[in-house]
Amino acid sequence: MTGIERHALVVGVRPEKREEYLELHSAVWPQVEKTLSDCNVTNYSIHIVENMLFAYYEYVGTDHAADMARIAEDEVTREWWTHTDPCQVRIVPETDLGAVWQPLREVWHLA
Amino acid sequence: MTGIERHALVVGVRPEKREEYLELHSAVWPQVEKTLSDCNVTNYSIHIVENMLFAYYEYVGTDHAADMARIAEDEVTREWWTHTDPCQVRIVPETDLGAVWQPLREVWHLA
Description:
Two copies of one chain form a homodimer.
Chain A (H helix, E strand, L loop, with lengths): L4 E9 L4 H8 L4 H9 L2 E9 L2 E8 L4 H10 L1 H10 L3 E2 L12 E9 L1
Antiparallel strand pairs in A: 1-3, 1-4, 1-5, 2-3
């Protein structure tokens, strides 16, 4: 009940890269997970149906933008993204700042 | 770290019913929320982007199907659904059992 921020995001997966994406996520690199944890990201799950991916995570720090920037500075995470980025494609036309993963807005929460 | 099951679901919202759906969820009926809680559903959030809704919840009971059936037996919840159902439309073509909300499969989780 403290300052947990819930974040939800959606992206498409390229059909020809679907299996590769799943395989990558069957063994996410430990350093990628450590960086997320170090940057106050917790209870993170990614879900798939057809060629659509949804991510949900909880942010327990105090400056989401700063922590996201810290994640993006991690060399191993950047290397990881060179594998995952080609699997993904934007599926929501309207976007902010060119991000591929599109944020959703929370409309309701039950604790 | 006990037996929490994470569930993710997706559905479309009819464009002409989008505002109505948001208004309904600005004040979900207390009995609807109580029934969910009584049936071991927790940390439930619904998110929107464009005309797509994404739901995430955690199930902390021992028989998800039985608890879902209990929810569906609650008269107030059924009445609530007469308001929300017309707002929703299936967006994933393949489906199980005719459900409108489509379940996603978890591909990765970071605690």
